[in-house]
Design a protein that fits this description.
The complex is a heterodimer of chains A (288) and B (337). With 288 residues, chain A is an alpha/beta fold. Chain A has a domain at 8-166: Cytidine Deaminase, domain 2 (3-Layer(aba) Sandwich). Helix content of chain A is 44%, strand content 20%. Chain A has seven helices and eleven strands. Chain A has helices spanning 16-27, 75-88, 108-118, 170-184, 196-222, 230-241, 248-284, and strands spanning 12-14, 37-44, 51-58, 61-63, 71-73, 93-100, 125-129, 141-149, 155-162, 165-166, 191-192. In chain A, α3 links the parallel β6 (93-100) and β7 (125-129). Chain B is α/β, with parallel strands linked by helices. Chain B is built from eleven helices and eight strands. In chain B, α9 runs antiparallel to α11 (294-336). Chain B is flat, with a radius of gyration of 28 Å. The chains are: A alpha/beta (288), B alpha/beta (337). β11 of chain A pairs antiparallel with β8 (183-186) of chain B.
C-alpha cells in the first residue's frame, strides 16, 4: 500500500453539525462506556480535492476493560446505518471515523484497518474530540495514519495531525449566532426565536459597542496613552474607505424611494389583513 | 402581533396538550443541513422529529430526513421504523413527535400540510410540524416555526364537512386552523461549551448578511406570492358568489312554481278535483351542492401569514434604512466642516 500523503495537500472542512452529533452521542453513551465512536461521512470534491466532513453517526461498540487495544464494533449496525443514510444523502461517503478522548487511543490501529476497507481511497481520516474536557478544550483534531518503518522490516502506523478548518455556511452561522446569544444570556436558559426587527436592533447595538471601542483606541493613541499600531490603522483605513461615497442628492432619492416602497407594502398588507378579518366576520354572522 | 399572540393563548387553553416546543441545537442543525441541501435542487425537504414529552413541553432532541421522494421502490414506513430502531440502540429518544418541512415564505400552511398533520395528530396526539424557512435563514434570520392543528380543525377534518355551516358551528376561521406553538432552542451544558469553542473560530464578519440593504428583490418575491394568494382567494370568492346567485335564482323559481301550484289547486278544489301535493313541485328543484370553504380558509391563512411576514420584513428594512441615513448624515456633516 503506497501512502503518498494525499490529504496534506487537500483542504479539510468540518461542518459544525458533526460536532453537535458527537457531543450528543457522548451524552447519550451507555452507562459503562467512557467514550463513543462512530463513522464520519462526507464528500470529496474530485477536482479540488476539498474534503467536507458533513455528517456522522455513532456505532454501537464494546470496550474491553483489560485490553484497550481491542474494540468490538457492531459491524452489522455500522453497515445498516450506512445504508440508511444513503437513502437521504446518496452523495455522502464514508470518510473515516471519530472517537472521543484526549489522545489517539491504542485501538486506532485496528480501527484504521477496518475503515481503510470501507473508504474509497483506503485512507480513513480520524477525528478526535475531547468531550471529557480533560484538556480544558474540546479541540477537534484530525488525524491521518502514515506508515512508518524500514522497508522489509517492522512497520508501524503513525497518526499525524492534519490541518482542518470549520465550515460556516450562512444559515448555519445564523443558527449558531442565535444559539450562542441564548447561551450567553443566562437570564432565561431558553428563549424563543427572535423576530427580525429585534435582530437588527441587537446587531446595531453590537456595532455601536465596537465603534466605541475603536473610538477609545483612537483617542488613546491621539493622547499618547497607547502606542500606535500600524496594522490596526491600516485596517481602519480600509474599513473607512470601504464605505462608498454617495452624493447627498442620490442618497436622498434612494432613501425616499425605498421608504415609500416599504411603507406602501406595509399599508397594503395590513389592508389585506383587515379585509380578511372583515370577510370572516361577515361569513360567521348568523343568518338572523 | 400582540393581538395575535393573545388569540393563540386562548386557543391553547382549549388545547392543553402542549404549551411550547423545546428544540435541541442538534436537531436544529440537522434540519438546517437537510433543508438547505434539498433546497439547492429545488426540492421540499421533509423529515421526522424525535423527542419526548415532558409535562406541557415537547422536547425535540433529534431528527432524521425522509428519503428522497424519487425512489418509489422503498417502503417509507419501513425506513422510518428501521432508522428509529437503529437510533434507539445508541440511546436516542425514539418517540416520534412530529415532522419538519422546509418551505419558502409563508406558503407552508397548505392543504397538504393540514392533511399530514391531521394524520400525525390523530395517531400521536402531541405531534407538531416544524416549518423551516430556507430563504430567510440563508439571509441570516433563523426562521423556525412550530404549528399544531387546533381541536376545532381536527374535528372539522374528521367530519369531512367543509360547508360554511360547519365552519360556523365549529367556529373555525383562518386564524384558528393552525395554532403556532412557541419554539425555544435549548442546548445541554456540554453542547454550550462546545459551541462557545466553536464560536471563537467563527469569523466576525460572517453571518451579518441580514444587514444587507438590497432588499427590493425579497420584497418583490413577498409581494408576488401575496398577489398570487389574493388571486386564488378571489377565485374562491367568485365561485361562492356564483353559488349564491344560483341558489337565489332557484329559490325564486321555486316560489313562483309554488304560487302557481297554489292557484291551480284553488281552481281544482272549486271544481271538486283532487289537488296536487306541493312535494311534487319541490322535488323538481334539487338542492345545489355547497362549495367547500376549506381552500378559501387555508388561502386566507396563507395571506395572513404573508402579510405578517411583509410587515416584519418592512419594519426591519426601515430600521436598516434609517441606520444608513444617520451614517450618511454624519458623513455629510463632516464634509461640510
Amino acid at each position: 500500500m503506497s501512502l503518498s500523503n494525499y490529504s496534506l495537500q487537500s483542504k479539510v472542512l468540518l461542518h459544525p453539525l458533526v460536532m453537535f452529533q458527537i457531543v450528543d452521542a457522548y451524552e447519550r453513551r451507555p452507562m459503562d462506556n467512557t467514550q463513543v465512536m462512530g463513522t464520519l461521512l462526507g464528500t470529496v470534491a474530485g477536482n479540488t480535492g476539498r474534503i467536507d466532513i458533513t455528517s456522522c453517526y455513532s456505532v454501537v461498540h464494546r470496550q474491553h476493560d483489560d485490553d484497550s487495544s481491542h474494540i468490538d464494533l457492531d459491524l452489522r449496525y455500522d453497515s445498516d446505518m450506512c445504508q440508511l443514510t444513503q437513502f437521504s444523502y446518496p452523495q455522502e461517503k464514508v470518510l473515516g471515523w471519530f472517537s472521543t478522548g484526549s489522545h489517539v487511543s491504542e485501538a486506532a490501529v485496528e480501527l484504521h484497518e477496518f475503515y481503510a476497507r470501507r473508504c474509497q481511497n483506503g485512507q480513513p481520516l480520524h477525528l478526535l474530540m475531547d468531550t471529557s474536557l480533560r484538556g480544558k478544550l474540546m479541540n477537534p483534531r484530525l488525524f491521518c495514519a502514515v506508515q512508518t518503518g524500514v522497508p522489509g522490516g517492522t512497520k508501524g502506523l503513525m497518526f499525524t495531525l492534519l490541518p482542518m478548518e470549520i465550515y460556516f455556511g450562512s444559515a448555519e452561522t445564523a443558527a449558531l449566532r442565535h444559539m450562542n446569544k441564548q447561551c450567553l444570556s443566562q437570564a432565561k436558559d431558553a428563549g424563543p426565536t427572535v423576530p427580525q426587527f429585534k435582530q437588527v436592533v441587537e446587531s446595531t447595538k453590537e456595532l455601536q459597542l465596537r465603534l466605541d471601542l475603536i473610538l477609545s483606541y483612537i483617542n488613546d493613541v491621539l493622547n499618547y496613552k497607547k502606542l500606535p499600531d500600524n496594522s490596526v490603522s491600516r485596517a481602519l483605513h480600509d474599513a473607512l474607505s470601504a464605505i462608498p461615497p454617495v452624493e447627498s442628492e442620490r442618497f436622498r432619492h434612494m432613501f425616499n424611494n425605498n421608504v415609500r416602497d416599504l411603507l406602501m407594502s406595509m399599508t397594503l398588507s395590513s389592508l389585506v389583513k383587515n379585509q380578511l378579518e372583515l370577510s370572516e366576520q361577515l361569513s360567521n354572522m348568523s343568518d338572523a | 402581533m400582540a393581538n395575535r399572540g393573545g388569540r393563540h393563548a386562548r386557543t391553547e387553553d382549549s388545547d392543553n396538550t402542549i404549551n411550547y416546543v423545546q428544540c435541541d441545537g442538534l436537531a436544529v442543525m440537522k434540519m438546517v443541513k437537510h433543508c438547505h441541501e434539498e433546497s439547492s435542487n429545488m426540492d421540499l425537504a421533509q423529515g421526522a422529529l424525535l423527542g419526548l414529552v415532558v409535562d406541557k413541553c415537547l422536547e425535540i432532541t433529534n431528527c432524521f430526513p425522509f428519503p428522497k421522494s424519487g425512489d418509489e421502490t422503498m417502503d417509507e414506513e419501513m425506513y422510518q421504523l428501521t432508522v428509529m430502531r437503529r437510533l434507539r440502540r445508541v440511546n436516542v429518544d425514539h418517540l416520534h413527535v412530529g415532522w419538519y418541512q422546509s418551505s419558502d415564505v409563508g406558503n407552508s400552511l397548505s392543504l397538504a400540510l393540514l392533511e399530514s398533520q391531521y394524520h400525525y395528530q390523530t395517531s400521536i396526539e402531541e405531534s407538531v410540524v416544524v416549518v423551516y424557512d430556507t430563504q430567510k435563514s440563508a439571509r441570516g434570520f433563523l426562521c423556525l416555526k412550530a404549528y399544531r392543528l387546533t381541536p376545532q380543525a381536527i374535528q372539522m377534518y374528521k367530519d369531512g364537512d367543509f360547508t360554511p355551516e360547519a365552519f360556523r358551528t365549529l367556529k373555525v376561521g383562518y386564524e384558528s386552523l393552525f395554532a403556532e406553538i412557541p419554539i425555544v432552542i435549548k442546548n445541554s451544558p456540554l453542547t454550550n461549551i462546545m459551541m462557545s469553542e466553536l464560536f471563537e473560530l467563527l469569523p466576525e464578519d460572517k453571518g451579518h448578511n441580514f444587514l444587507d440593504l438590497g432588499t427590493a428583490s425579497v420584497l418583490e418575491n413577498h409581494m408576488r406570492s401575496l398577489i398570487e394568494r389574493v388571486d386564488e382567494l378571489y377565485q374562491e370568492a367568485v365561485r361562492y358568489n356564483k353559488y349564491q346567485q344560483v341558489v337565489f335564482k332557484q329559490d325564486s323559481d321555486k316560489n313562483r312554481a309554488l304560487a302557481k301550484l297554489a292557484a291551480e289547486n284553488a281552481v281544482r278544489t272549486s271544481k271538486g278535483e283532487p289537488t296536487v301535493a306541493e312535494e311534487e313541485v319541490i322535488k323538481q328543484f334539487r338542492p345545489m351542492p355547497v362549495p367547500a370553504r376549506l381552500t378559501a380558509t387555508i388561502t386566507s391563512g396563507q395571506i395572513n401569514t404573508h402579510s405578517q411576514h411583509i410587515a416584519q420584513f418592512c419594519s426591519q428594512s426601515l430600521a436598516k434604512l434609517f441606520i444608513t441615513e444617520s451614517l450618511q448624515n454624519a458623513k455629510e456633516a463632516k464634509e461640510i466642516k
